[in-house]
């Protein structure tokens, strides 16, 4: 059985300091990239580390099947789910504290994150926290969503005579991009891949058209790439602009540019016609055992062990 933990998010830093004094040699955090969701796409090293982990602090988009398939059956599983617009999402500061807490309680702690850790994740905050607390860490790369979506749609991102390169971007409502930058993007000499931007796709299309992008430029929206629920929708800038009432299942990634026209020629993976959710919501219950006072309990164990060793 897997063990998960529901912990009071108001963990005090004073307790954190106390634990560090009790355990001057903290454990190690292994940042593992789980890939875009398909459990077969995690790296060999990532799977091996999961099988040895004492604690796994996992993102929602890492996918439950990866945990169920590869995790040490005795591991403590902590779900720090985030979901855009959902108030029940974990706050980053609370996740940072959990990393420090568990590194001071266990030797092998895995931080499991969706996609590749280097792309549009909050790893900067977490690395800074570990560095400040002198906790060792290791980063295991993985398949980013752009690579997974490219492979599972048959769309090579830098196909010869279609694109000279690729840009990885994200766009929020408050993102400030200069007109000059939009003009460079609108030339479509390179493929544009937008992460976490499907809700703002109309704004992206409008900005590109406003600076002279060709109306016939194709793009695809890949929902839940590489999973059994993968769904691909094809558009041109003009067709989307005329019918922008579209809702996309998260996570979605947008591949925009001439290469997107190759989807109809090289698609090989079955495309689901419905957008059923593969990843659970933060509202959904898990089968993990919940232990509310876990950290306090383990702190007491540390104190007792320390007293015993002194005697």
Could you explain how this protein is built, in words?
The protein has helices at 13-22, 44-52, 64-70, 92-103, 123-132, 145-153, 179-186, 201-210, 237-242, 263-266, 294-310; strands spanning 3-4, 28-33, 55-58, 76-79, 108-113, 136-140, 166-170, 191-195, 218-223, 231-236, 252-256. A hairpin with a 7-residue loop joins strand 9 (218-223) and strand 10 (231-236). Helix 4 (92-103) crosses helix 5. It contains eleven helices and eleven strands. The radius of gyration is 22 Å and the shape is elongated. By secondary structure, it is α/β, with parallel strands linked by helices. The chain has two domains: 3-143 and 281-310, Cobalt-precorrin-4 Transmethylase, domain 1, CATH 3.40.1010; 146-266, Tetrapyrrole methylase, C-terminal domain (Methyltransferase, Cobalt-precorrin-4 Transmethylase, Domain 2, 2-Layer Sandwich). The protein has a six-stranded parallel beta sheet with strand order 1-4-3-5-2-6, with helices on both faces. It has a five-stranded mixed beta sheet with strand order 7-8-11-9-10. Helices cover 33% and strands 17% of the residues.
β-strand percent reads 15-25%
CATH H-level homologous superfamily name of the largest domain: Tetrapyrrole methylase, N-terminal domain
Helix content: 25-40%
Q: Number of folding domains?
A: 2
- General shape: elongated
CATH topology of the largest domain: Cobalt-precorrin-4 Transmethylase, domain 1
**Gyration radius, rounded:** 22 Å
Distance between the termini: 36 Å
Which structural class best describes the helix and strand composition? alpha/beta
User: Largest sheet at a glance?
Assistant: 6 strands, parallel
Biggest sheet, strands in spatial order?
1-4-3-5-2-6
What is the number of strand segments? 11
Average pLDDT level: 84
H/E topology pattern = EHEHEHEHEHEHEHEHEEHEHH
Instruction: Label the CATH architecture of the largest domain.
Output: 3-Layer(aba) Sandwich
- Unreliable stretches (pLDDT < 50, length at least 5) are 1-21, 288-296, 305-311
| Tally of helical runs | 11
Which CATH first-tier class of the largest domain would you pick? Alpha Beta
């Amino acid at each position: 059985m897997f063990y998960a933990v529901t912990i009071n998010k108001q963990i005090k830093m004073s307790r954190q300091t106390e634990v560090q004094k009790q355990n001057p040699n903290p454990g190690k955090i292994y940042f593992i990239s789980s890939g875009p969701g398909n459990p077969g796409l995690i790296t060999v090293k990532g799977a091996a580390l999961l099988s040895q982990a004492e604690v796994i602090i996992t993102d929602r988009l890492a996918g439950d099947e990866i945990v169920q398939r590869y995790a040490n059956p005795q591991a403590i599983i902590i779900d720090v789910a985030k979901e855009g617009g959902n108030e029940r999402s974990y706050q980053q500061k609370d996740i940072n504290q959990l990393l420090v807490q568990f590194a001071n309680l266990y030797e092998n702690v895995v931080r499991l994150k969706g996609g590749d850790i280097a792309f549009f994740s909050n790893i900067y905050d977490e690395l800074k926290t570990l560095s400040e607390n002198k906790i060792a860490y290791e980063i295991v790369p993985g398949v980013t969503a752009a690579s997974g979506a490219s492979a599972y749609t048959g769309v090579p991102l830098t196909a010869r005579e279609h694109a000279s390169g690729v840009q990885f971007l994200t766009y929020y409502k408050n993102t400030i991009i200069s007109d000059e930058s939009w003009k460079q993007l609108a030339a479509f000499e390179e493929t544009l891949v937008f992460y976490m931007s499907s809700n703002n796709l109309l704004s992206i299309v409008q900005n590109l058209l406003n600076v002279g992008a060709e109306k016939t430029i194709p793009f695809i929206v890949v929902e839940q790439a590489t999973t059994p629920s993968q769904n691909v929708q094809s558009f041109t800038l003009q067709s989307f602009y005329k019918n922008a009432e579209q809702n996309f299942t998260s996570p979605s990634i947008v591949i925009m540019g001439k290469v997107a026209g190759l989807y109809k020629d090289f698609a090989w993976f079955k495309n689901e016609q419905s957008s059923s959710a593969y990843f659970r919501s933060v509202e959904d219950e898990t089968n993990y055992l919940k232990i509310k006072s876990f950290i306090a309990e383990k702190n007491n164990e540390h104190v007792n062990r320390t007293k015993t060793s002194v005697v």
